[in-house]
Amino acid sequence: MHRSGFFLTILLATVLLVACTAGGQTLSSLPSPTSLPPTPQSIRLRDGLGTEIELSGAAQRIVSLAPSNTEILFALGAGNQLVGRDSFSDYPSEALQIQDVGGGFGNLDVETIIALQPDLILASPLTAAEQVQGLRDLGLTVFVLPNPLQFDDLYTNLMTVASLTGRIQEAETLIVQLKQRVQSVDEKLSGIARRPLVFYEIDGTDPNAPWTAGPNTFIDMLITRAGGLNFGHDLQGDWVQVSLEEILRRDPELILLGDAIWGGVTVEAVMARPGWGELSAVKNQRVYPFDDNIVSRPGPRLVDGLEALAKLFHPDRFQ
Amino acid sequence: MKAPSTLSFWSARPYLVSGLALALALFFSVAVGAVWIPPQTMARLLAALAVPLDLSDVPPAYRTIVHNVRLPHAILMALSGAALASSGAAYQGLFRNPLADPYLIGVASGAGLGAVIALALRWPATLSGWLVVPLAAFSGALLTVLIVYRLARVNQSLPTTTLILAGVAVSSFATALTSFIMLRSRDELHRALAWLLGGSTVNGWTPVWAAFPYIVTGFLVLWSLGHVLNVLQFGEEQAHQLGIPVERAKLLLILAASLTTAAAVSFSGLIGFIGLIVPHTMRLLWGPDYRRLLPLSALGGAGALLFADLLARVALAPQVLPVGVVTALAGAPFFLWLLRRAKSEFIW
Amino acid sequence: MKIGARLSLQSIQVAYNGKAILKDVSLEVRPGEILALVGPNGAGKTTLIRTASGVLEPAQGTVQVNEQDIRQLTPPERARWMAVVPQARQLPATFTVVQTVMLGRTPYLGWLGFPKKEDEEIVQQVLRRTQLEDLANRRIGELSGGEQQRVLLARALAQNTPILLLDEPTAHLDLHHQALILKLVQQTVQECGLAVLLAIHDLNLVSLYADRVALLVNGRLQREGLPAQVLTKSEIEHAYGVEVELLEHPRLSAPFIIPHSNGSSERIAYVG
After folding, report:
1. DSSP structural state of residue C86
2. Which of A44, A76, B169, B283 is surrounded by the fewest CB atoms within 10 Å?
3. How far is B297 from chain A (nearest CA, A)?
């Protein structure tokens, strides 16, 4: 019958076309292990899901499934122990040289991960628990690094990753530096008279009802630590949508555009939004783009974020 | 082309063609992926499924990829595609409406709500071995259908129009609730969205064993109702007069179709167009007899979803597209083409 | 096939949304006869057919086949006693004639619906009798209204029941097909002794083909008996609210009914 034959031919042709152009990775095209001083004893730690993970030595072939984990690894000098990273890991720029393992649309490229033969997969709560389980079912070691709620939790995470990668000394040095910087900020902010009200915009697609950060988020914690008052501090939920009327009523002193990194959101565009011209922050030109990554990724750059925020809120203390 | 339905019911050709297409789709799904495996190794790995072979010199990574990643995934996609297409065909027959798809009376929105609740409450991934999110999705789906059924029932009968209206209303409510919950929980939003766009997030053989009994049982029940569906095409009144226990048949159809769809959706996420287009294609090719249309839709749905999944995995490697996106992108123009043929062909 | 079945409706009352459609209707259809059910639009003819076939449940009264209440029968059992020929409306276009007629064997086919040799033979016989052999593999969507109605009749005949119910089978048909359908029914009654309840609106066809007539007006059985008894000038004028002329058919002892306007003040423009 002509019709079914026609269908079949099309099907075959397309599939063959796809098959020939697909599949870029081979085992040999993927990076091979580098040599490093081995740690003598095995490492045993409990991860964020409560699972006990055991490694026979420092991990040499790591796949990172979160941009924060990638930043931590590089900050600890373990960058060349990394063989794979998720699509969103873009900092530092060296990370872009590492094999991408997907995750852009939610699903990881499990095949490539397997082909990389990792001895440790460093995940975060961003990865679905089913995916973690699935990877474990395939015999891979997955360590889920929990989300820190305070700076101390961040330091704990740094030490955890350091133990897994044999970078204890680098971690200790880094933590000392971070603590010093945080303490410096605290000192410079001691005795501040008032806290400016800050509106941190996460998404402004609907300018009449933009999204901001609620309590219990990094952003809220950092803004508070940096001497400001987060607009969403008394609201409910992690992401909260507030009406323009409410913003007008409370009239924040500063507006930070966390969505500026996504493009299309510029200070001029925001100030020109209908109704926004009434805000003091707009009138006083205190609308700033902000690199969302340094306040939302739970890595060492949170301290960068803290410093940046503090300088914006209390410039007089940071001359 | 002339009367395809004059092919005798017992003709093997439709099954052979569909079976061949499915076999090819299965083969390519296992042979092709983000990682390139040399053909000889691939051949040996495939042969090892049938015959015990010594695979000690094959890199274990390749073996894991083929046997424990691609193969179970392909089987799951095949099962899901079969489930969606056959229940789509059944609903089109039950409601006598060419726009009916397996999500009509709330399975999809119920599954979505169940999954998102599980994700938002941050339930553990497994509970004594059971995969929690798919289980929550499954329960959500069946609960929703139950609610719709109770709402639509009038005395002892189940008027189909009321059923559709109740389904639409409950679905809208569930979807709205789902969106609300998703927006309240930031971290999980990412995962929930990924789940809702379709594509199985769970690897390995577990989802296959879990979904298999529901999908197969549901399908067999649907298939046994093929003759009943044929009679129902003349309307419920005439079916009644021809001796069909209509209300019981409708209930069975809804139960079986919901069971298969819920299982498919729970493990593969929301995948559209398969349930709508594959039955129409099969009907166009091989006629409206449901005794044949149901198994052919199952075969066609399996092949179509495998094909879409292959594209999803490979088109933007290492990014894995949600399958639902691929089926929508491919499905919509295909559907339009089908409509054009239908107008001149008088198919419905 | 079972022969000699009698269909009786006793004191049937059917209501819909609080409104009474059939009020205390009692009827009997005997084997070997065609009982024509006539009456104005909205009198309840179709409702009566649907009640008789079991689709509608009467609020009061019973429907019996050979003294057995049809509510005690399972759907397939009932379908082996009674077949219905509905009006040919909104049929699934892609079914072929033979597929459609085969569906008439449903009460005998079992759940999966696979026909046996016997079923296939019966279908072939019925196709021959209803002159549908040449159209056997055509899709019913492509047929004319008359041919579609014939297919539905064939399907009912394939059901091989002693009782046949027809709901206005000649509506929308041309003269040729009207005659064809009714002749087929008449032949089958004579050959097989069927009991036939025929709802029909064309009074002149009634007098030609029916053995007895029941006149239904506003849900009540006005009159029942031989055509000459029921189709009188006064009964018709009372039931239909229009003046009629009754003529004697040249060859048969049945009346011929022609409606006309009352008085010369209203003229029918097309008389000529």
Report:
1. -
2. A44
3. 14
How many domains are contained in chain B? Answer: 1
Identify the residue whose tokens are 């056997």: C136
CB pairs under 8 A between A and B: 185
Q: Note the ipTM here.
A: 0.89
Nearest to A3 by CA among B162, B338, B68: B338
- Asked if residue B131 lies in contact with residue A130, where contact means CB atoms within 8 angstroms, the answer is yes
Q: What's this model's pTM, rounded to 2 decimal places?
A: 0.84
State how far residue C81 is from chain B, nearest Cα, in angstroms.
10
**Chain C contacts of B224, Cβ < 8 Å?**
111-112
> How are the residues of chain B apportioned to helix, strand and coil, as percentages rounded to the nearest 5?
75, 0, 25
Residue showing tokens 């083409």: B337
- DSSP letter, residue C224: E
All residues of chain B having their beta carbon less than 8 Å from the beta carbon of residue A241 are: 183
Of C96, C110, C101, C107, residue with least CA distance to C158: C101
Asked if the Cβ–Cβ distance from B244 to C139 is below 8 Å, we say: no
Which token pair is A63? Answer: 């796949």
pLDDT in tens, C139-180: 999 999 889 999 999 999 999 999 999 999 988 888 888 888
C-beta atoms surrounding C220 within 10 Å: 15
Identify residue C127 by its one-letter amino acid code. Answer: L
Q: Can you give the CATH number for the domain in which B215 is found?
A: 1.10.3470.10
> Taking a C-beta distance cutoff of 8 angstroms, is the pair C224, C62 a contact?
no
- How confident is the model over C172-204, as pLDDT tens digits? 888 888 888 999 999 999 988 899 999 998 888
Within B198-289, where are the H helices?
A: 206-224, 226-232, 236-241, 246-268, 274-286
Q: Coil, helix or strand for C93?
A: coil
- Report how far apart, in Å, the C-alpha atoms of A302 and of each of B88, B342, C190 are: 51, 60, 97
Interatomic CA distance for residues B161 and B60, integer angstroms: 56
CB distance C196 to C29 below 8 Å:
yes
Of C79, C90, C96, the CB nearest to B241: C79
- Cβ distance A26 to B36 less than 8 Å, yes or no, reads yes
- B320 to A109: CB separation less than 8 angstroms, yes or no: yes
pLDDT means per 10 residues, chain C with 272 residues, are 80 88 92 93 90 92 92 93 92 92 93 90 94 92 91 95 94 87 92 92 87 92 89 86 82 76 48 40
Cβ atoms of B7 and B283 closer than 8 Å: no
Check C112 against B233: CB less than 8 A apart: no
Q: In Å, what is the CA distance from B91 to each residue of A81, B83, B99, B243, B255? A: 54, 12, 9, 21, 11
| Number of CB atoms found within 10 A of residue B343's CB | 9
